[in-house]
């Protein structure tokens, strides 16, 4: 950061936040490709409540071609998500600083909350398509991306592209608020141990995203189960949660099945994204 008051940043500096957010997320697409099988393994555990070895066995039997079925939406979403999330958070933070004489520690979190709300509106359709493609039970009647889009276009928004919109909004808004609220203070603590700025940013991004992923993991499981199917009996959030909780035998341990793999994915993607973004912001400042 430059040390200048946020309210005095010029429009070009705020544009850099959008550019750097997109760039950092784009550069992290390679790790996304590498860990996509991990993500898909977690998804199978979320949907079918299977142990990790059984989920890996399912993917192995399906073969390498189907292993990367559904990888396009998260790659596109990662790049656009970084652009919107970091850029919009910085824009909202600027507006908050203009309406307040003092920059408080709560403002980054509040701006992150607002950015998370917009993020949910924009990216819920991407997540919906991704979850339909990753569900192996859809391979026969929805074999291609085009077939999935045609089917979702025929549905109402609430049951089609915006299925599970409410839990996604809650997850993204709270997650973004925690990320932007904790990232800076945690980075300062890590930097106080004598580590370089890049390493400090990486560690702070990793630890922050790890904590958020674990705290909000049950919501992600709920979203995956709500979005995996197209058509049929469309139930509300409360009914779906009751069905999910019952299917997990009312066990928190079973509900968190696959959670350890989420930690691994968060360590790789958000750690790298945070380090690259903070470095670019510092160089442009």
Identify the notable features of this structure and list them briefly.
285 residues, mainly alpha, Mitochondrial carrier fold, 75% helix, 0% strand, globular, disordered N terminus, mitochondrion inner membrane, Solute carrier family 25 member 53, membrane, MCP_dom_sf, transport
Describe this structure in words.
Pfam families: Mito_carr. InterPro entries: MCP_dom_sf (IPR023395), MCP_transmembrane (IPR018108), Mito_NAD+_Carrier (IPR052465). It is a multi-pass membrane protein. The chain is mostly helical and 285 residues long. The protein has a single domain, classed as Mitochondrial carrier domain (Mitochondrial carrier fold). Helix content is 75%, strand content 0%. It is built from 12 helices and no strands. Helix 5 packs antiparallel against helix 6 and helix 8 runs antiparallel to helix 9.
CATH topology value:
Mitochondrial carrier fold
The value of Rg in angstroms is: 19 Å
- Level-1 CATH class name: Mainly Alpha
Number of helices: 12
Q: Structural class, from helix and strand content?
A: mainly alpha
Record field, number of beta strands: 0
Number of domains: 1
Please report the distance between the alpha carbons of the first and last residues. 7 Å
Major β-sheet annotation: none
C-alpha geometry: globular
Low-confidence stretches: 1-8
Q: What is the helix fraction of residues, given as a range?
A: over 70%
Helix-strand topology string: HHHHHHHHHHHH
Residue fraction in strands: under 5%
Please, what is the CATH homologous superfamily? Mitochondrial carrier domain
Q: Average the pLDDT over all residues and give the rounded result.
A: 85
Query: In the CATH hierarchy, what is the architecture at level 2?
Result: Alpha/alpha barrel
């Amino acid at each position: 950061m430059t040390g200048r008051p946020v309210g005095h940043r010029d429009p070009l500096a705020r544009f850099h936040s959008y550019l750097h957010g997109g760039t950092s997320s784009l550069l992290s697409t390679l790790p996304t490709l590498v860990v996509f099988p991990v993500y898909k393994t977690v998804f199978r555990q979320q949907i079918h409540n299977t142990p990790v070895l059984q989920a890996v066995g399912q993917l192995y039997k399906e073969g390498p071609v189907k292993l990367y079925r559904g990888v396009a939406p998260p790659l596109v979403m990662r790049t656009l998500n970084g652009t919107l999330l970091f850029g919009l958070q910085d824009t909202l933070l600027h507006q908050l600083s203009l309406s307040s004489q003092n920059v408080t520690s709560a403002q980054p979190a509040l701006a992150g909350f607002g950015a998370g709300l917009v993020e949910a509106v924009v990216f819920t359709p991407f997540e919906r398509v991704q979850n339909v493609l990753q569900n192996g039970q859809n391979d026969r009647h929805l074999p291609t991306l085009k077939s999935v889009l045609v089917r979702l276009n025929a549905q109402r928004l609430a049951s089609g592209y915006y299925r599970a919109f409410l839990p996604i909004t809650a997850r993204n808004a709270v997650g973004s608020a925690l990320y932007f609220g904790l990232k800076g203070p945690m980075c300062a603590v890590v930097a106080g141990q004598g580590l370089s700025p890049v390493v400090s940013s990486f560690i702070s991004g990793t630890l922050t995203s790890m904590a958020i992923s674990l705290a909000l993991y049950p919501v992600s499981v709920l979203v995956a189960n709500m979005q995996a199917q197209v058509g049929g009996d469309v139930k509300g959030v409360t009914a779906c949660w009751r069905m999910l909780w019952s299917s997990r035998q009312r066990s928190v341990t079973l509900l968190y099945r696959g959670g350890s793999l989420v930690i691994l994915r968060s360590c790789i993607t958000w750690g790298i994204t945070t380090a690259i973004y903070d470095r670019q912001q510092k160089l442009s400042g």
